[in-house]
Design a protein that fits this description.
The protein is mainly alpha-helical and 210 residues long. 77% of the residues lie in helices and 0% in strands.
């Protein structure tokens, strides 16, 4: 049985999925670096710096990804053409930056705790930062799908475009069902990877006080 999907759909979806992972990876690296920097600043002996970082984290934790994305897209829209000289798709940059409040605040908490655990000799507990970041990557992949709302050609954008081509037929629901199953499988692969890393750490590292 031939599925009534366009010939280029699989390729467009795969290319879009790569963009999703690209956004998630860039946001993870930037957010981890910024979160670690702020966690280090929070340990400063200057009383004002911990207060500033605490205030910053409270703001970042309250900032939804989609709000940040639409804010950036709206504010930077007049400069979109100029940004195209530097980036192939400025929308990717907007979504990446919009993910930073979440991952930065998450990394801030996780890195700060990991540093504290490491200094206490609880190396196993400190290294659990790694699987925690893998799980954060899963969230970022999901959050990157918001990019479809501002025209980023990521995976969900390819699915929505294909759905419009199919029209209001039963195959439209088959398409969405297939994509849901595929995304669940992909997310489960990341979850399994996180659990595997967790088990490796539990098996190979012991805390100093153990």
């Amino acid at each position: 049985m031939n599925l009534p999907f366009s010939d280029g759909f699989a390729l467009h979806f795969a290319q879009g999925l790569i963009i999703n992972f690209q956004i998630a990876f860039m946001a993870l690296i930037l957010g981890l670096a910024l979160g670690a920097l702020l966690a280090a600043i929070h340990k400063s002996r200057l009383p004002v710096l911990p207060r500033i970082t605490d205030l910053s984290m409270n703001v970042l934790r309250a900032m939804p990804v989609y709000i940040a994305m639409f804010f950036l897209a709206g504010v930077m829209r007049p400069y979109y053409s100029a940004l195209e000289d530097w980036f192939d798709d400025p929308g990717i940059v907007f979504v990446t930056l919009a993910c930073l409040p979440y991952i930065c605040s998450y990394a801030y908490d996780q890195v700060g705790d990991a540093i504290l655990q490491w200094r206490r000799g609880a190396h196993r507990a400190a290294l659990l930062l790694i699987p925690n970041m893998v799980r954060a990557f899963q969230v970022l992949v999901s959050a990157s799908c918001f990019g479809a709302a501002i025209g980023v050609n990521e995976a969900m954008s390819a699915v929505l475009t294909e759905a419009e081509l199919i029209g209001n037929t039963p195959w439209r629901y088959v398409l969405f069902l297939l994509m849901i199953v595929l995304f669940v499988i992909l997310m489960q692969i990341i979850v399994v990877a996180s659990r595997w890393v967790h088990r490796m750490i539990e098996r190979n590292y012991a805390d100093a006080h153990a």
